[in-house]
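The methods section describes the discrete structure representation at length, but only in general terms. Each protein is reduced to its one-letter sequence and a matching series of backbone shape codes. I believe one specimen quoted in the main text would settle the matter. An entry of this sort, consisting of the sequence and the corresponding backbone structure tokens, reads as follows.
***
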Amino acid sequence: MGYPAAGGSDDGHQAHPDPTLRLRPAGHQLGLLGCAPPAQPAHPPAAAPAPALRGYPSGGGAGGGGAAAAGGLASLPDLTADLLTGACENGPGKEGADSHFTGSFSWKGDSASGEERWILHANEHWKKKGGNDCAITWRATGSKVAPGACADCDFGLMLTGEPDIAGSDCPEGLVKQDARRLELRYDVKLNSDGTAFIYFAKTGRRLGQGYHTGSSMNWLSQHQCKWF
């Protein structure tokens, strides 16, 4: 089966969800829609909390003296532990998958590195056509730079993502189409409560949120259906 090229992302690669959707870790009321965090108080009205970001453990952020503050990436919560699946069984196309992007980056001086991963959970229609739960990973290297569109962010990241083609378990046709070299440009905001936000540097639109500790961060996009 064919895999039509997807698009619409700010940096030209294939399936980033709409980053304007609200996300928050359980226990927090973070509802950022633009690149700059709101002025204090940071909590929106209790009557209209932002929806929880699945994968975040209850109890709030990892900062503020928590266990993650003393470690690196391994000490941060696993944002992929409870991804939303089974939400893309019916839609504009039969064959599809629950789609998430996730990433983790570390920096030292002006250098930065990490990875970005596209995770797909196949629906039953795609499984019948040869699809399967799978992922494509990009190894990213580059540098810390000044922020782009997000003037309130702490720094930017200019990265080149090289696809790990051999390591992907996605169908061959999908890998051939979408596992290509990426030029990534992000803005990053690190909050004092241990939460982190990542934005497209060209537009300031939010890509995802996660946690940070020391010189490392992780992030997860919101759920999206991918149709083939």
Observations:
- Residues 3 and 177 are 7 Å apart (CA to CA).
- The first helix runs from residue 124 to 128.
